[in-house]
């Protein structure tokens, strides 16, 4: 499995397209007052720290030559006080900046999660789960050092460099020229190395996402069962090894690209004190020489300058790398939200919900240029009726269920609940109006009770039992050693397929919606359990609209209306006896059952 690396120049344009400094700075805008306080502390700390070299010059040029012990004691006390104040202010600054950094990360993580929650099912059917997890966890965690340590170091180093540069100019402008002479070259080298590493970091994070996907897919219960039963464990290990090897190579390249060029910066900074001494010696030959104290203070200031200046260059290099992380995060934040709630949505009180459903010339295609999955569907389902939707595989039954639940929006036409267009209805009203049990039951890695209460957090124990009894699962759960406190396992793997379906059905029943949509909800049940549940659902359906999407036609014979779909259209509708007498698609499905 090969790894294709984008050219850094090509990637630079791509990153700039996704990320601008204004957009990044907008993340910290809510904390500008606290950031201003941190910056003030940094400037004060830098200003206080500058007093040290001047005190040192006074000791060398005045106190020691005069043998003035009193002045020496005062100057030394001043140096001790400067060190103490710098340390105290620095500690407060670190604490405050860390809190700001974590708050920014928290806001970004929650914002990304909330945005993903608002995307339509279309996004999730085309995106790997491990990739989504990587963006929320790995990419945002990669910004940890930037918004905490790096931001703190940036402010501290920048203020130290500016204040120290001013002090050097005040001390002796002639010697200061030697220090400032090396700045342009080092900045150019740092920028070049940063561009190289930025492109590599984007590829590195993408490969890390591939590893997250591999772990999520193959080390889940389903993945282990598949690998063991197919004898593909060694193959999966080899595939994981290739991904890990590619990631390791990218890690090395990301950290070492341009290292030889970067070493030139270290060399230039290392020889600067020697050049300063040489310059001081040359000035001795002039009529206006620098004093010994000035030279010592200058070298001390250089030491104070060089470390934060080198830090600034490293921060600039590493910050460019984090643009790749911002690019990946903003790529998801820029995904358009297809399913939106109107600014003034229609809210229907639970007591006023009747459960009437109307489909008015509904059409929908999964892709703009694709074949419609449903075409010109018109159907009225009276409140309290029992309607079944059947048809061969691929006829559009499940798609119709997705549209009713507004997991997708219709391309044309309208769906109305109690006369209100689905797109005008508030999300809360829709969730209370319609309960959905899909053909792929999903359970959280939590207890049975917690899974049921996901539908109704304040449900009493009696309500849990009642819902479970309707779903024909109460006796089984009650017989378990931990009862309703039993942990269901990853995606319910401690329960059989039929038991999971019944738990999911119980969860939806607990919500007590006026419209219940069952999408193959009994497909994993044995005939005896299915019959018992059908009787329970029949008792429950009084006053409730039931929409059943089914392959097993034995479960819907007594429906008030059976709708037959084929190739995305309604081709027949009527009662069981009427459709059998018609001897059309439904009768053909019965014969093939």
TrEMBL record:
<dbReference type="InterPro" id="IPR017871">
    <property type="entry name" value="ABC_transporter-like_CS"/>
</dbReference>
<keyword id="KW-0762">Sugar transport</keyword>
<dbReference type="InterPro" id="IPR036640">
    <property type="entry name" value="ABC1_TM_sf"/>
</dbReference>
<feature type="domain" description="ABC transporter">
    <location>
        <begin position="357"/>
        <end position="592"/>
    </location>
</feature>
<feature type="transmembrane region" description="Helical">
    <location>
        <begin position="71"/>
        <end position="96"/>
    </location>
</feature>
<dbReference type="GO" id="GO:0015421">
    <property type="term" value="F:ABC-type oligopeptide transporter activity"/>
</dbReference>
<comment type="similarity">
    <text>Belongs to the ABC transporter superfamily.</text>
</comment>
<feature type="transmembrane region" description="Helical">
    <location>
        <begin position="160"/>
        <end position="189"/>
    </location>
</feature>
<feature type="transmembrane region" description="Helical">
    <location>
        <begin position="262"/>
        <end position="284"/>
    </location>
</feature>
<dbReference type="InterPro" id="IPR011527">
    <property type="entry name" value="ABC1_TM_dom"/>
</dbReference>
<keyword id="KW-1003">Cell membrane</keyword>
<keyword id="KW-1133">Transmembrane helix</keyword>
<dbReference type="Pfam" id="PF00005">
    <property type="entry name" value="ABC_tran"/>
</dbReference>
<feature type="domain" description="ABC transmembrane type-1">
    <location>
        <begin position="36"/>
        <end position="321"/>
    </location>
</feature>
<dbReference type="InterPro" id="IPR039421">
    <property type="entry name" value="Type_1_exporter"/>
</dbReference>
<dbReference type="InterPro" id="IPR003593">
    <property type="entry name" value="AAA+_ATPase"/>
</dbReference>
<protein>
    <submittedName>
        <fullName>Multidrug ABC transporter ATP-binding protein</fullName>
    </submittedName>
</protein>
<keyword id="KW-0067">ATP-binding</keyword>
<keyword id="KW-0813">Transport</keyword>
<dbReference type="GO" id="GO:0005524">
    <property type="term" value="F:ATP binding"/>
</dbReference>
<dbReference type="InterPro" id="IPR003439">
    <property type="entry name" value="ABC_transporter-like_ATP-bd"/>
</dbReference>
<feature type="transmembrane region" description="Helical">
    <location>
        <begin position="35"/>
        <end position="59"/>
    </location>
</feature>
<dbReference type="GO" id="GO:0005886">
    <property type="term" value="C:plasma membrane"/>
</dbReference>
<dbReference type="InterPro" id="IPR027417">
    <property type="entry name" value="P-loop_NTPase"/>
</dbReference>
<dbReference type="GO" id="GO:0016887">
    <property type="term" value="F:ATP hydrolysis activity"/>
</dbReference>
<keyword id="KW-0547">Nucleotide-binding</keyword>
<keyword id="KW-0472">Membrane</keyword>
<keyword id="KW-0812">Transmembrane</keyword>
<dbReference type="Pfam" id="PF00664">
    <property type="entry name" value="ABC_membrane"/>
</dbReference>
